[in-house]
Each structure stands twice: as structure tokens, then as C-alpha cells.
């Protein structure tokens, strides 16, 4: 089994592409969703977050998302410490999940593969891109947030140009049908690459 990373900046369409692969029968691990889940279900993560941010990080057993987001996005040091608590647990959870899959290849969707310098954990990495203004418009529409907020979040991510140099496959997601065709083609390529060689 080979392991494929799927990444892309905010609003590029990673989750959309991930869903297309799922519909082709490919097991996809959504790191962001799993990380959020583990922040309430993993006792180690929960204890780490409380010791970093205090009891206010949780209401009862529910994650206090706004409180955590405000702390993490206004202070780089806190964000790094938070990532250091959550990422190793997600990584281990992903490895366990992968063991349970039986497929020629699996995909891990993660927003920050290149930012975190973890591309070597994958056999190959797919990058999803779209023009900046299109990404901003998509996120404004999807999350009902201001353009400024989206620009601010994008500024914290690595420039697409640098990511393109590091990626193995590129999906320019500007048109739904063209993206679906690219995903279908890439699926065929990845199945061939995953075939055992003797
Ligand atoms: P984030 O990093 O914020 O999670 P993402 O990269 O996963 O974003 P998606 O959630 O897949 O991006 O897409 C952002 C929005 O753009 C969604 O509302 C999605 O439906 C829409 N979208 C994605 N691809 C296309 C497309 N090719 N044409 C039109 N709309 C699209």
C-alpha cells in the first residue's frame, strides 16, 4: 500500500478533491476533522491543552473552539505548542487507521504538509491550487466571513509557488468537471504506481 498526501491552501478545494477520491473508493483520512475529534476524545491531548491554555479551553467536555482559535491565531508560540500536542497524536492515529485499510493506496488530507515539512512521510503528494481571488470568494461564501479574515489566514500559509515546486502532482481546481476528470486520471495513475513490482 502506498500513502498519498493531499494538500492545498485554504479554499483551494482539498476537501472537494478528497471527496472525489472517496467516491472512487479510495480511503481518505481527513486530518483536520480527526484532529478536532481527538481534541475531545484523547485524554493526553485534552490534558496537554488544559495545561497550555487553562480550563477555559473546554466547556464541560466540549472544545471551546472560539477561545482556542483566538489564543492560537494571535500568538505563534501558542500555536506551535498546540500543534506539538496535537500533531503526534494525529500521526499515530493515522498510522493505526492505515493499518485497518485494505486498498492499493490511501490518502491523508492535510492543510499543512509543506508548512510542517512532513512531505517525506508520504510516497507522493498531490497539491490542489486555485487563483487567490477565487479561493477568497469560495471561503467568504462557505464560511460567511470577511475577505480580510480570509486574506489573513492565507497570509499565514506558504506561498503556492513554493508548494508547486515541492509537489508530485498538481490539480488546478478552477472548474468542477475538469477537476473530476483530473482526479479520475490521477486515480488510474496511482493504481498503477501502487501495483506491486517483482
Ligand atoms: P479549507 O482549507 O478551508 O478546508 P479546502 O481547500 O478544503 O478549504 P473546499 O472546502 O473543498 O476547500 O472548497 C472551498 C469551497 O469552494 C467549498 O464551498 C466548495 O464547495 C467550493 N469549491 C471547491 N471546488 C470548486 C469548484 N471547482 N468549483 C466551484 N466551487 C468549488
From TrEMBL:
It catalyses: 3'-dephospho-CoA + ATP = ADP + CoA + H(+). InterPro entries: Depp_CoAkinase, P-loop_NTPase. Pathway: Cofactor biosynthesis; coenzyme A biosynthesis; CoA from (R)-pantothenate: step 5/5. Its EC number is 2.7.1.24. It is an enzyme of class 2 (transferase). Coiled coil: none annotated. GO terms for biological process: coenzyme A biosynthetic process. GO terms for molecular function: ATP binding; dephospho-CoA kinase activity. Gene3D superfamilies: P-loop containing nucleotide triphosphate hydrolases (3.40.50.300). Keywords: ATP-binding, Coenzyme A biosynthesis, Cytoplasm, Kinase, Nucleotide-binding, Transferase. ATP binds at residues 11-16. One of its GO terms (cellular component) is cytoplasm. The keyword Nucleotide-binding applies. It is found in: Cytoplasm. Pfam families: CoaE. Its main location: cytoplasm. HAMAP family: Dephospho_CoA_kinase (MF_00376). Belongs to the CoaE family. Catalyzes the phosphorylation of the 3'-hydroxyl group of dephosphocoenzyme A to form coenzyme A. This is Dephospho-CoA kinase. It comes from Flagellimonas ochracea.
Amino acid at each position: 500500500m502506498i500513502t498519498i498526501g493531499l494538500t492545498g491552501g485554504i479554499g483551494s478545494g482539498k476537501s472537494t478533491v478528497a471527496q472525489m477520491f472517496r467516491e472512487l473508493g479510495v480511503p481518505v483520512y481527513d486530518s483536520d476533522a480527526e484532529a478536532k475529534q481527538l481534541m475531545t476524545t484523547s485524554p493526553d491531548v485534552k490534558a496537554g491543552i488544559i495545561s497550555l491554555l487553562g480550563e477555559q479551553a473546554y466547556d464541560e467536555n466540549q472544545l471551546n473552539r472560539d477561545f482556542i482559535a483566538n489564543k492560537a491565531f494571535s500568538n505563534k508560540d501558542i500555536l506551535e505548542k498546540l500543534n506539538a500536542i496535537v500533531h503526534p497524536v494525529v500521526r499515530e492515529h493515522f498510522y493505526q487507521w492505515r493499518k485497518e485499510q485494505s486498498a492499493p493506496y490511501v490518502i491523508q488530507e492535510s492543510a499543512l504538509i509543506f508548512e510542517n515539512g512532513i512531505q517525506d512521510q508520504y510516497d507522493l503528494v498531490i497539491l490542489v491550487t486555485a487563483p487567490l481571488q477565487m479561493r477568497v470568494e469560495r471561503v467568504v461564501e462557505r464560511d460567511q466571513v470577511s475577505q480580510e479574515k480570509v486574506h489573513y489566514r492565507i497570509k499565514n500559509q506558504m506561498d503556492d509557488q513554493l508548494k508547486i515546486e515541492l509537489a508530485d502532482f498538481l490539480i488546478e481546481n478552477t472548474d468542477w468537471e475538469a477537476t473530476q476528470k483530473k482526479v479520475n486520471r490521477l486515480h488510474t495513475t496511482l493504481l498503477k504506481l501502487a501495483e506491486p513490482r517483482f
